[in-house]
Structure formats: structure tokens, C-alpha cells
Design a protein that fits this description.
The complex is a heterodimer. Chain A is about 40% helix and about 10% strand. Chain A has three helices and three strands. Chain A starts with a helix and ends with a strand. Chain A has a two-stranded antiparallel ribbon. Chain A is flat, with a radius of gyration of 22 Å. In chain A, a hairpin with a 2-residue loop joins strand 2 and strand 3. Chain B has three domains: about 290 residues, no CATH class; about 110 residues, no CATH class; about 60 residues, Arc Repressor Mutant, subunit A, CATH 1.10.10.410. Helices cover about 40% and strands about 20% of the residues of chain B. Chain B has 15 helices and 16 strands. In chain B, strands 6-7-10-1-11-12-13-14 form an eight-stranded mixed sheet. In chain B, strands 5-4-15 form a three-stranded antiparallel sheet, with no helix packed on it. Chain B has a two-stranded antiparallel ribbon with strand order 3-16. The chains are: A mainly alpha, B alpha+beta. The interface between A and B is large, with 38 and 54 residues.
Chain lengths: ~100, ~475
């Protein structure tokens, strides 16, 4: 399976990864190599096998509905780049 | 062209828990910004989610409540997108294997008919935080208190055909989840938020048109308005030969319009994959059975029992079963006074009327069910008339005491004593000699009317306290 450069560009945008024009050719060919490995796996017959959600043969532990955390806003906000009135400030996002 | 509207609703229901779905932070509404956002909610490196057992229990309750197939093995997935109110860069949700599968529940429509609306699925997920865009010198402020609040996303089949049906569905759903006790259902605090999927197709067509999704409509009224608006918008486009673009739109209640929300189509590529930080959730038959056994009487069962047991109309039974506290109140009044129909009438007309005017709810009602039953008992034993009873009720509402106390204090006891009434009747007949003459010369039909007039005069003179039945008898006896 081959992946096209425009698909790489789209995935990079969704993942917020900047790939420069000089790098993109190399990234495309590397990912194509990985997909060739996936092609080899595709050859295995998996008809009666349920998709695996987790490699561990265990099920989810449930936690009782209790409040165990206290307010540590000051500690968290001390390491934030920018805060005001208790809010974390980020570059303007509005659609 | 006649268009048929096809609507499916996605409701994000906030589940009633003390702590968040994946962390031990509190979920209390209205706390100061970020005081309820801790390491897991802030997506600090190395933090791991641990699932809240109450959230699972609530989801299963919902599943059992709508007769759905509850999946004994469900899986959490990551829904990937970037937005600052979602610090992890993904929302933990369920995609391939939701906890609640297909089910349905009965919705009472505006015209009194009922219809089962299908539920495609319901899955557990975490809420995001809140972005504030004003007054931060060109920056946005982020409050992550809400991040990680447990939600159940309930997806309906595209079974809904107009705004009124959508509202009826939401009301029935609201009633069901508050009966189940899995959510406080507080719309103003965002406990029930709704996305509306809507498309149009020519009347009679079976294929679905391209849909638009209207996000985050937060009240029944706005759902209605948003659907009306979106119907018009799509009909205009289709009738002028245009095509509907599949997109997410936002309803703006200030301008009563919907507008496109996401500029880039790629934004909707969520790349779901199984959440590696959580294992599959496995529950067994015994767990589901125990929850099933613990369910309270549900709205439909209660309504049907009210009809059958108390002989109420479907409409009355429905009003009185609107919430568990109201239904319990009504039942106490009915049992207390022994006449369910009068009890139903009083609760619906006088009590709900007063509650509406006072803009309060049954939980804060100043008149107890026992006291209301006491008042109705006095109507039934002819101590007071229905009209006087309203006056007594008003005084009870003001906290002046029980019905008996008020009747005694104000001397409102109905006068049934023939001697006392005769005096008043004689007075009325004496003062209206003209009408008496008319009565004596009149035919049967006209006589009835005149008796009504005399009764009215007697009631007026007795300040409403005369027993109308006895007054009637006296009048007929005297007018010969």
C-alpha cells in the first residue's frame, strides 16, 4: 500500500505536526515502508478473531464514586505559562 | 414541494455523581474556575484514568430502563481533536462497543397519542472544559472544572418528524432519567444538552437527505426554534436548486438563526482508536439483574397505574406522573381524602397553578399533602363549598394553618341548618317580588333559570357559606 503526499499533509495537520517541504518526501516514503509491513500482517487470516482492545488479559477496575482530590489550583497554576482570575490563558480560539 | 423533516437527537446527559468519570475531583456546579481540575483532568504527564463505578451503574440503569441490550463488554476509545478545553488532545468516549445498545421508549405526543422512539445507542464519555473568549487581551480563558464530568450520550433513531415531536421526546427523556435518578436533569446548569441532526426529503421519499448537525441546544424552547429555523433554511436551499452541505452548525438564540461552525471539513476526522489506558469494561448478568430489580416504578408504568387504579384520564395521569415528587404528593392526597378524582383536580388546578405563579416546585410546596387531603375532606363532608375551599387553600398557602383551623378561625363553616337558611331565603324572596311573580307564571325551563338567580342571591347574602343543595330544596318548596 502506498500513501500519497497529500494524505501525509492532512494527517500532519490533524496531529498538529509541522513537516517542512524538504522533509515531507522522506516522511512519505518512510510511512509507506511501515505500511508495507502492515500489508504483510494483512495476509494473516483473522476472520474469526475478535478485535483486541487491549493486550492485557484483564478487565477494567472500577473506582468507588468518592471525591479524593482537593483543590490544588495554586500549585498547578504556578507552572502554567499564563493565568488570570483562576483561568488558564491560551491563544485566542474562536470559530 | 412538500418536504418531510427527518430528525435524530443526540442528548448529552450529565450523570449524577460526586466525582468525575476518570478522577476523584468533585463535580459540584458553580465552583470557582479550575478549583475542581486536578492532575488527571489537566492531562498532566503520566496520569491514568480510573473509571467511576457509579457512572457505569447509571448507564446500565438507563439501558435497563429503555429495555435495551446492555453490552456486557464495552470498550473506551479515544476521539482525537485539538481544542484548548480538552487538554489531552482527545476525549475518552465509546465508539465501536458502547455500553448501551439498541432500545426504545414511549413518548407521549402533544395530541395525546403515544409513539415508541428508537434509541440507537448510549455511551459513556467525559465532558470537556469551558472556553471564555471575552476580556483576556486577545487570549482565551480556560476553565477545566467541567472537564471529566461523566456524560451519557443518548442517540435516537431518525424517528422524529417535527419540532413538537422533538420537544415531546426530550420531555419524556427528561422524565425518564429523573425517575431513574441518574441525572438531576437541570437544564439551566447544562445537565441535558442536545445536538439536533436534521435533513429534509420530498414527502413520500424513503431515502435520507444530507443532514446538518446543530450543536449544543440547551433548552426545549431553543430546540423547537432551532428546528423551525433549520427547516426553513434547508427548504430554501433545496427549492432554489441548491445542495445541503453536511456540516456542524451552531444555534444562536439571540439572533434566532443557525450558522456554520467548523470552517474546515477535515476537523471532523476524529481517528478513533481503543483507549490504551483503560481495559474493557466487563459486567455480568447478576450485576444487570440487581440493577433491574432496584429500578423504581417508571413514568409509563406509573401513568398506566394512575389511569387504571384511580380511574383518571390518560391526560390527567400523565400530568400527575410528571415527576416522582409530584406523583407521590398526589397519591398521598388521594389516599388521605379517599377521592382520587377530586384529589387529581385539586392538585392539577389549584396546587400546580399556585406553584406556577410562585415559580416554585412541588419539593418546596408550603402546603403538605396531608393538609390538602384535610381540606378536600371538608368539601366531601359538606363542611365547606368548593368555592370557599379555594379561599381556605389560599390561606393555607400563606401559612395560616390547617384547613380546620382556618375554617374555624374565619367562621367559614357551610350553613346547612334549615332554620338559618330559611331566614335568608325569605329575605331574598321578599326583596325580589318581581322575579317571584315571573317564576310563578313561567314554564319549566324558565323556572330553572330563575331558581339559579335566587340561589345566587342567597349565596351572596350568606357570603358563600350556604349549602346550595339545601337552599335549592327550600326555594322549590317555598315558590308555590
Amino acid at each position: 500500500m502506498k500513501i500519497e503526499q497529500n494524505e501525509i499533509e492532512k494527517i500532519a495537520e490533524l496531529a498538529r505536526i509541522r513537516i517542512s517541504d524538504s522533509e515531507i518526501g522522506q516522511v512519505t516514503s518512510r510511512i509507506t515502508e511501515i505500511l508495507q509491513m502492515v500489508d504483510a500482517l494483512q495476509a494473516v487470516d483473522t476472520r474469526d478473531i475478535e478485535p483486541m482492545a487491549n493486550p492485557l488479559d484483564a478487565t477494567q477496575h472500577l473506582r468507588p464514586d468518592k471525591v479524593t482530590e482537593s483543590n490544588r489550583r495554586d500549585a498547578f497554576q504556578a507552572i502554567a505559562p499564563s493565568v488570570e482570575n483562576g483561568l488558564y490563558l491560551v491563544p485566542k480560539v474562536i470559530e | 414541494m412538500q418536504w418531510e423533516c427527518v430528525i435524530g437527537l443526540e442528548v448529552h446527559l450529565q450523570l449524577a455523581t460526586q466525582s468525575k468519570i476518570f478522577s476523584g475531583s468533585p463535580t459540584t456546579f458553580g465552583a470557582a474556575p479550575n478549583t475542581q481540575a486536578n492532575a488527571v483532568d489537566l492531562a498532566m504527564p503520566g496520569m491514568l484514568p480510573v473509571l467511576n463505578e457509579q457512572a457505569v451503574c447509571h448507564a446500565v440503569k438507563f439501558g435497563v430502563g429503555i429495555g435495551a441490550n446492555v453490552n456486557k463488554r464495552s470498550v473506551f476509545d479515544r476521539k482525537n481533536y485539538f481544542y484548548p478545553d480538552l487538554p489531552k488532545g482527545y476525549q475518552i468516549s465509546q465508539f465501536e462497543a458502547p455500553i448501551v445498545g439498541r432500545g426504545s421508549f414511549e413518548v407521549l405526543m402533544e395530541d395525546g397519542s403515544t409513539r415508541d422512539i428508537g434509541i440507537t445507542r448510549a455511551h459513556l464519555e467525559e465532558d470537556a472544559g469551558k472556553s471564555l473568549h471575552e476580556d483576556f487581551h486577545g487570549q482565551s480563558g480556560i476553565d477545566l472544572n467541567r472537564a471529566g464530568t461523566p456524560l451519557l450520550e443518548i442517540v435516537s433513531d431518525p424517528d422524529i418528524r417535527n419540532a413538537a415531536e422533538a420537544v415531546a421526546y426530550l420531555k419524556a427523556l427528561h422524565r425518564l432519567v429523573t425517575y431513574l435518578g441518574i441525572s438531576d436533569g437541570n437544564m439551566a446548569e447544562g445537565s441535558m444538552r442536545c445536538d439536533v441532526n436534521i435533513s429534509l426529503r420530498p414527502e413520500g421519499s424513503q431515502t435520507l437527505g444530507t443532514r446538518a448537525e446543530i450543536k449544543n441546544v440547551n433548552s426545549f424552547r431553543f430546540v423547537e426554534k432551532a428546528i423551525h429555523h433549520e427547516f426553513e433554511r434547508q427548504a430554501d436551499i433545496l427549492e432554489s436548486g441548491g445542495k445541503i452541505v453536511q456540516e456542524t452548525r451552531l444555534y444562536d438564540s439571540d439572533r434566532d438563526e443557525t450558522r456554520s461552525m467548523r470552517s474546515k471539513e477535515v476537523a471532523n476526522d476524529y481517528r478513533y482508536f481503543p483507549e490504551p489506558d483503560l481495559l474493557p469494561v466487563v459486567i455480568d448478568d447478576a450485576y444487570i439483574e440487581a440493577i433491574s430489580d432496584s429500578l423504581p416504578e417508571l413514568p409509563r408504568e406509573k401513568r398506566d397505574r394512575f389511569s387504571a387504579h384511580y380511574g383518571l384520564s390518560k391526560y390527567d395521569a400523565n400530568v400527575l406522573s410528571d415527576s416522582r415528587p409530584l406523583a407521590d404528593y398526589f397519591e398521598s392526597v388521594a389516599t388521605g381524602c379517599g377521592d382520587a378524582k377530586i384529589a387529581a383536580n385539586w392538585v392539577q388546578v389549584e396546587l400546580l397553578g399556585q406553584l406556577n405563579r410562585a415559580e416554585t416546585v412541588i419539593e418546596n410546596c408550603p402546603v403538605s399533602a396531608i393538609d390538602l387531603a384535610g381540606l378536600i375532606t371538608r368539601i366531601l363532608d359538606n363542611s365547606i363549598s368548593g368555592k370557599i375551599a379555594k379561599q381556605v387553600f389560599e390561606a393555607m398557602w400563606q401559612g395560616e394553618g390547617s384547613a380546620d383551623e382556618i375554617i374555624a378561625a374565619k367562621g367559614l363553616q357551610q350553613v346547612s341548618d334549615t332554620g338559618a337558611l330559611e331566614t335568608i331565603v325569605d329575605e331574598v324572596l321578599g326583596a325580589n317580588a318581581g322575579q317571584v311573580q315571573q317564576y310563578l307564571e313561567a314554564d319549566e325551563a324558565k323556572r330553572k333559570k330563575l331558581v339559579g338567580f335566587f340561589v345566587g342571591q342567597v349565596m351572596k347574602l350568606s357570603k358563600g357559606q350556604a349549602n346550595p343543595k339545601i337552599v335549592n330544596e327550600l326555594l322549590v318548596k317555598k315558590l308555590v
